[in-house]
Design goal:
Number of strands: 11
Strand order of the largest sheet: 3-2-1-4-5-11-10
CATH class of the largest domain: Alpha Beta
Strand content: 25-35%
Distance between the termini: 48 Å
Number of domains: 2
Helix content: 25-40%
Largest sheet: 7 strands, mixed
Order of helices and strands: HHEHEHEEHEHEEEEHEE
CATH topology of the largest domain: Rossmann fold
CATH architecture of the largest domain: 3-Layer(aba) Sandwich
Structural class: alpha/beta
Number of helices: 7
Shape: globular
CATH superfamily of the largest domain: Vaccinia Virus protein VP39
């Protein structure tokens, strides 16, 4: 089963602890630091659109891109309910194509890690570079290898009154991939229905990703700790990376 198919309907209720407003605030902190004020943006691997709608509310002309049609269905309904006109497109990042260039590309919640083939990751970053206008900015976050390796043999639980989710992590040193099987139980009337998904994330290092960015043509790359304007600390669980597309002279 594809990742984020069965989970799509329950994703928002199980991730209420995610500080989306804080993520957008950090994006804007980085943009102010760069001295730029983007007008247009794309939210890559946008999922259910929680970041996308917040960017739209901030005044960005934004679109969302994701590989999961089920997650995009939720995102489209969310935007509609909020009275926001946001286009959502179903595309893998390694085949990203936008009808016009954008000033800002963001990719939140370790979505880059889901590209488990490094060659495809390099291609995706090159496609993102092409999608940006000159001077545009790309900001994304990933889980650190330390975090993904520590998930090996761990069991995690998420629940609310209508959903119960159990997931088990396994890290493969040979492939450098963390896999986690997810058993999802959803209440439907008096019945609980079970579904299963498997998610995988590749443990990219900051040095590896910065190399891909530079190879694609990005400049002014910087690596930050988790929403902090300073380098990652030892044992950091999540890092943010910012890069710029050069201005054509």
């Amino acid at each position: 089963m594809n990742a984020y198919k069965a989970l799509a309907a329950s994703y928002d209720s199980l991730t209420q602890d995610v500080d989306y407003d804080g993520v957008v605030e950090f994006y804007e902190t980085l943009l102010r630091r760069e001295g730029i004020a983007p007008r247009s943006a794309v939210d890559l691997a946008c999922g259910t659109g929680s970041l996308t709608v917040r960017l739209a509310q901030k005044g960005y002309k934004v679109m969302g891109v994701d590989l999961s049609e089920d997650m995009l269905t939720v995102a489209s309904q969310k935007a509609w309910d909020m009275g926001l006109q946001i286009p959502f497109v179903c595309q893998p990042l390694e085949k990203l194509y936008l009808p016009r260039g954008v000033d800002l590309a963001v990719c939140g919640l370790d979505s880059i890690d889901y590209i488990t083939d490094p060659a495809c990751c390099k291609t995706a970053i090159a496609r993102i570079y092409r999608a940006l206008n000159p001077g545009g900015c790309f900001i994304f976050d990933v889980n650190t290898p330390e975090k993904l390796r520590a998930m090996d043999a761990q069991v995690f639980l998420d629940e609310n009154e209508d959903t119960f989710c159990v997931w088990r992590g396994e890290f493969d040193d040979r492939t450098n991939i963390c896999s986690y099987g997810m058993d999802l139980f959803r209440r439907q009337g008096k019945i609980w229905r079970r579904s299963f998904e498997e998610h995988q994330e590749y443990a990219y290092s900051a040095e590896q990703l910065v190399g891909y960015l530079k190879e694609a043509g990005f400049t002014r790359t910087e690596v930050f700790g988790d929403r902090r304007l300073e380098p990652p600390a030892e044992g950091e669980q999540r890092i943010y990376i910012k890069a710029r597309k050069g201005i054509v002279k």
